[in-house]
Amino acid sequence: MDSGGADRDVTVRDGRVVHIRTARPSDEEEMLQAFHRLSKDARYMRFMRFVNEPNRERMREVLASFPDGGGSVVATIPAADGIDVVGGATYLVGKDRSSCEFAITVATEFCGVGLARILMTALIAEARAHGLSEMDGFVLAVNQPMLRLARSLGFTVTSDPEDGTVRICRLRLSDA
């Protein structure tokens, strides 16, 4: 398992091969399918609230904002209809234009095999290449796997002063 940028095949710890690449607007339908394959618990961990339906308009806005407004990498596998998205990591550039906020989702069947690390490493590389200086993320305190991953990637993890159930993960990109 190597680290680095997008557009490559990677073998995860259990031997499966995923393709890592930059997300594009044409991925919309596959991303919607991926959302519907997520368990309720996985959706809660990702959105920090219960979400039954994805916000298609927001997804379109985000995808259309790239590359100026952020970036995203996806992990895909071959499927009967072409591909399935089994993971994705996104950053959105902040109003200060020097920082960004990340979000990540990994399909349940790909949890624990190193895919989140691969996606976050690629996302960090993209944010650094974009010239950003800091990356933040808001993670539920109960999401210990994500908090362990963040710490292992060099993020500092602190309590959100406004919500004790949330942790703020922060990475100075120059240190990454």
Descriptive key words:
eight-stranded mixed sheet, 5 helices, 35% strand, 8 strands, 176 residues, globular, alpha+beta
Quote the distance from N terminus to C terminus: 18 Å
Name the average pLDDT: 90
Spatial order of strands in the largest sheet = 1-2-3-4-5-6-8-7
Radius of gyration: 15 Å
Number of helices: 5
Quaternary organization: single chain
Q: How many E-type strands? A: 8
Structural class: alpha+beta
Order of helices and strands: EEHHHEEEHEHEE
* Percent strand: 35-45%
- The outline comes out as globular
List the helices and strands and how they pair.
Elements: E1 8-11, E2 17-22, H1 28-37, H2 40-47, H3 56-65, E3 70-79, E4 82-93, E5 99-106, H4 115-129, E6 134-140, H5 144-152, E7 156-160, E8 163-172
Parallel strand pairs: 5-6
Antiparallel strand pairs: 1-2, 2-3, 3-4, 4-5, 6-8, 7-8
Can you characterise this structure?
The chain has 176 residues and is an alpha+beta fold. It has 5 helices and 8 strands. It has helices at 28-37, 40-47, 56-65, 115-129, 144-152; strands at 8-11, 17-22, 70-79, 82-93, 99-106, 134-140, 156-160, 163-172. An 8-stranded mixed sheet has the order 1-2-3-4-5-6-8-7, with helices on both faces. Strand 3 and strand 4 (82-93) form a beta hairpin. The longest helix is centred in the last third of the chain and has 15 residues, at 115-129. It is globular and about 45 Å long. The model has no long low-confidence stretch (mean pLDDT 90).
